[in-house]
Every structure is written in C-alpha cells, then in structure tokens.
Amino acid sequence: MKSNVCRHSLSLFLLFLSAFFFPRAEALTKQRGLNLSVSAVLVFGDSTVDPGNNNYIQTPFRSNFPPYGRDFENQEPTGRFTDGRLATDFIASYVGLKEYVPPYLDPTLSLEELMTGVSFASAGSGFDPLTPRISNTIEIPKQVEYFKEYRKRLELAIGKERTDNLIKKAIFVISAGTNDLVVNYFTLPVRRKSYTISGYQHFLMQQVEQLIQNLWDQGARRIAFVGLPPIGCLPVVITLNSDNAFLQRGCIEELSLVAKDYNSKLQNKLKAIQKNLAHLGSKIFYIDIYGPVTNMIRGYDKFGFEEVTNGCCGSGIVEASFLCNPNSYVCPDASKYVFWDSIHPTEKTYYIVFKALRHVVDMISN
Question: Which residue positions does the secretion signal occupy (predicted)?
Fold first, then answer.
C-alpha cells in the first residue's frame, strides 16, 4: 500500500470523514404508486444516508449550510452531504411512501413521518466502534438504540401489533464502511498495529453480523446492505495519494481493490446469513455501488458527465463539510460532476446508482 496513505495528517483527513453517494429526480422512471407491501424505509450508516442527524449533535461534521442542498427543494441545506437528494430518498419515493427520508433526531417529526420511515445514520460513522469516536458522531450501536426508542414511540402511538407488522414490512437500508477504511485504517495507526487489511475486513464483518442480529431481534426481516464504492476514486483520496495531485488525477487502484475485496467478503457474509434465516422469512440483499460508480467514472460521457476526479464545490480536490461553505466557489451545473465535494456524489450520481439498485428494491419489496 502506498506509504503516503498513512503519512498525511489526521487533522486534514478529518475534514473528509463521511462516505458517499446520488441527481435530481426529473421523474423516477416507472414510478410506483402506493406500495402497500412496504410500510417504511429505515436507514442506518454514514454520510451516504444521513439526511441531517448530525445537525442535532455536537460535531463539526455537518452540511446544513450552503452550498449543500443547492438543488434540493427550495434550495434548502438539510444536512445531506450533497446538492440534492440521497439514494434513500429515491427509494422512499419509488415505493410510494414519501419524497424524502427525514433524520430521526428531528424533534418536529409527525407520527406519519415516523411511521413511513426515518434515517438514524450519522456522517462520519462506521462499523468499527473507533471510527465515529474520531469525529464525535453517532456510532452504529447507538443508531440501533435510537431504533429501539423509535419502536417504543410507535408502540405507544399505534400499539404493539401494528408496530410489529410495520417493522416486518419495512425495508432496512445499511450503508457504511468507507470511513472505516479510508479514515480509520489507512490514517490512524491504532488498527494497523493490530490488524492486517484482511484481518481488519474480517473484524468489520463481525460488526456487520452483529448489526444484522440486533436488527433481526427487533423484528427486521427485509435488509439491504450497501457495499463500498471504488474508494480510490474519491477526489480527496486521489489528492492525498497521487504523486502529483494537480496533474495526475487518476483513481488509486490499489485502494479501490481493497474496497472490492471487502465487497466480496460482505457478499459472502450476507449470503451465509440469508441461508440460515431464509426459513424464518428473511430477505437479506447486497447492493452493489462499486460497479455503477466505476461505470460512471470510466464511461462518464455516456452519462453526461464532464468531471469525474474533482468535486463541484471549491477546488474539488479537498473540500468537504465545513470546507465546502457559503464562501466556496461552486460549479454552475452539478449534473456535469460525479462528485459534489471531495468525497460525496452529486444528486445525479445518487440517482443513477438508485436506478442500478432498483431491481433489489423490487425483490426485497415482494
């Protein structure tokens, strides 16, 4: 592994915590009407699926200010780390529930909002318990505790039987892991002293298995687990690992291969768990984003993109979170960019990824 992966200062890398991905929904093709087989969309993970929970905790890793949200409804910066909607928003819209999945920590949520789904995710989090401590964000076991609290709130409002049925028919989406590798393993010395990269991936798989067990114990039966993107193609990763970050902006393939290997382990783990639980009514699916994002980067012109190695905000090579702010230069048309900032995809990218995973939503819904 390139030595400079570990050389760069933690203070710089913390600016880019979080993880990833998706444009605007001109119209969801083959838009569904109300899908009575899906009761809610419930989300756990990191910045790829955090719609604003970090707004309500003491962390510097927020995005509830311009230019974030520039292409969202009313140009509102909600706390999503992109210019518009996330893939989970498109999923909720596609199954006929609502247009946006709100953050659970929003104190103004109505009962209807709670019943149709929320996100417990926190930008900067990960499966490794050490990862969210770096940025003072919400660890995944705490997200599960919030889910248990959410369950109790529903039981008080609609009764245990209706709540049990709602949870059973909900789609659970989990998206995390990028911060564990990019920020934690390859930046801090702690995990590298204890684990080889293969050993660390095995450790993460243990956390994945525990998460599924915890959700299963609370009634989850439909679970979609998102894999990792090609992490070596993130603009900030290119910046920190290129021999010439300004002139040589190609993907760092050895890091993307680490993500590819992780995805293979994740698929094997999920298949084994599904096999053991299938007779109990489980539907546990893997969602591939590595392929769709790689295709967008390699065949960018086919998708109408013009820039694939820089983000739309600022210089596009280092800015994220508070470095992408109201004073930053912003490209005039984010739909020409795969990435919004140096880590996170644009809404257009999220939408293309959503279209690629839509068949999984169909399978898990039926």
Answer: 1-27
